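subagent[fold] <- orchestrator: predict structure for attached chain, return C-alpha cells only, no commentary.
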Amino acid sequence: MNLLNVDIASAGYENENSIIHNIHFELKKGELIGLIGPNGAGKSTTIKTILGLLEHKKGLVDFKEGANYSYIPERPIFYDELTLWEHLDFAAAVEGLPEKEFKNRAAGLLEQYKLSEHAHKFPGTYSKGMQQKAMLILAMIANPDVYIIDEPFIGLDPNAMKLFLESIVKERRRGAGILMSTHVLDTAEKVCSRFLILHEGQLKASGTLSEIRQQCSLPSGSLYDCFHQIAEGAGNEER
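subagent[fold] -> orchestrator:
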C-alpha cells in the first residue's frame, strides 16, 4: 500500500487563480522522490497543498491511515523561547514517544550531528548550518513514515550533507518514504528513486531516470540535461 497518494487537479492561493495543475503521483515505502523544477515551477505550492495549507485546492491528498509525517522547510523555523532540547521534548510529547525512547534517540541524533553541546541553547543563536541540522534532528525524532523535505542542502557543509544522506538511507531502509524538493540535481540523480519534473505549475515528466530519459529522448542524458531540455522546450512552445 502507498504511504501517500497525490491527485491534485489544481491548487493556488486565491480562488480561481491556480498555480499548479494536474499533479499526480504516489509515494511508496522506502522511496525517495525528487521534486525538481526551476524557481516558480510550483514545487513549494505542491508541498503546501500536500501539507493541507492551501484552502483553494481541487483534488485529493491521501496519507496511509495511521501514517505520520515530518516536514522540513527550506528556512528553519523555531520557537524563540525554547532551547533545542525543549523543541525535541515538545515534538516527542506531541508524537507520544516514551520518555526513555525519546532521550536515547535525541542523544544519538544530537551526537551524530555534533549538536550535543548546543542542545540547551536557543536555535536562534545558531549558525545557518547548525539551524538546518537542528531541523533535521527535529524531523527524525519521531521516526515518521513520510518525510517532506524542501531544499535540505541549503546551508549544509559537506560533512553535514554526508550525514544527512546517510540518515535518509537508513530511514529508507526502515521503510520511510521521502519527497524531497531540491535544486542540487547531481546529488538528486545519485540518491533518488524517481523524479517529478515541474515547469510552470505542471508535471512535465515523471519516473525513474531511465523513464525520464525516454520521455525527453535523451538515452544517455543526465538529470540536468533532461531538466533543461524540458525547460527549454516549454520556452520554445511559448514562442
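orchestrator: received. Logging for downstream: The helical segments are 43-50, 84-95, 99-112, 128-140, 158-174, 185-191, 209-216, 223-238. The chain has a mean pLDDT of 93.
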